[in-house]
Write a structure and sequence with these properties.
Length: about 90
């Protein structure tokens, strides 16, 4: 979408911090889903679940909550930035 609207210059402007945050969330999600999970996280998590399932569940839930908070901050920042709710 940035290419379509020629918005690449927004990465250089601090008031568009939410674009940076969206990119970080996207990159982190893609890394975990397509690189870390197939390479080592699946084995590591399966081993950890056998030894301590409750602690594993709490850990995974905390990571999901962290990603959710980052995603909501990026989405909220995008809405607020698009509506000019931030003072300039």
């Amino acid at each position: 979408m940035l290419d379509f609207v020629d918005g690449w210059s927004r990465y250089t402007e601090p008031e568009y911090w939410w674009i940076h945050l969206m990119t970080i969330v996207w990159a982190l999600f893609m890394f975990v889903l397509f690189v870390a999970e197939p390479m080592f996280l699946h084995r590591l998590f399966a081993k950890h679940v056998r030894t301590n399932p409750a602690k594993s569940f709490v850990f995974v839930q905390a990571l999901h909550l962290f990603m959710l908070i980052l995603s909501l901050a990026a989405g909220g920042g995008a809405v607020a930035g698009n509506r000019d709710w931030f003072p300039t």
